[in-house]
Design a protein that fits this description.
- This protein has a four-stranded mixed beta sheet, with no helix packed on it. It has a four-stranded antiparallel beta sheet with strand order 8-9-7-10, covered by helices on one side. Strands 1-6 form a two-stranded antiparallel sheet.
- By secondary structure, it is of the alpha+beta class.
- Helix content is 32%, strand content 24%.
């Protein structure tokens, strides 16, 4: 809840927040702030549904004391900080699915979770039904799209298969270092056929950067294949 308030640039005391919750509670299936937080905990209330109502109530109270210039600033629509637009929803929480780690440029789709906003998947993710209309709950799959320039970095993992040789891991590490990439983890193991399997988790900005990284790594002596997991 606190994270969502910060995301929407809402600065409110606990007393004022409780006052807002009491006002909107009767129309949203909770009678007290405690009922509200409990419902979030067990999934009875979805934050992405209730946050726009909290924000509207906060703005009505907050703009009374603002000067006209500040009112104009607060009334302008906020940009989604992660560069995602969810069709038919405003100011909803989005998160990137760890099963496929989508990157800007990927074809994506959203899934409305219970209490945690919209989870963003690659369209080709193994957890996304091939035919949405045949899914168990098709109404929970929603259209999403990237918007504008995304000034964030995303974790992605590369699996590299190569012929094992002395210095292979050092060469891969050096190449990643030369590209000024943040390396979260780098692991290597010997394969049954005598080759080497290397897993590298790095931070990157978009799909085009990923293609460039894979192209440069593929030129390292001994590298047979690279794939993104």
């Amino acid at each position: 809840m606190e994270r969502e308030l910060r995301r929407d640039n809402i600065s409110v005391t606990e007393e004022n927040l409780n006052s807002i919750l009491k006002k909107i509670g009767p129309r949203n299936s909770f009678n007290s702030p405690d009922d509200f937080y409990a419902a979030i905990g067990y999934g009875g209330i979805s934050l992405w549904k209730i946050m726009p109502k909290i924000k509207d109530a906060w703005q009505k109270e907050h703009t009374v004391a603002l000067t006209p210039s500040v009112q104009e600033k607060h009334s302008s629509p906020a940009k989604n900080p992660v560069g995602i637009i969810v069709d038919g929803m405003d100011n909803c929480l989005v998160k990137f699915a760890h099963c496929c780690n989508p990157l800007p440029g990927d074809d994506i789709i959203g899934f409305i979770t219970r209490g945690f906003g919209v989870s963003i998947h690659k369209r080709g993710c193994s957890n996304v039904p091939a035919v949405i209309s045949e899914a168990a709950e098709p109404e929970r799959w929603v259209k999403v799209r990237w918007v504008g320039e995304v000034h964030e970095e995303f974790k992605t993992t590369l699996e590299i298969v190569a012929g094992d040789r002395p210095g292979l891991l050092a060469d891969i590490t050096q190449q990643l270092f030369n590209m000024h990439l943040f390396i979260h983890s780098l692991n290597s193991r010997e394969m049954k056929n005598g080759g080497a399997f290397i897993s590298a988790t790095i931070s990157i900005s978009n799909i085009e950067q990923l293609k460039n990284i894979m192209a440069r790594l593929s030129k390292i002596d001994g590298v047979v294949s690279i794939r993104r997991t």
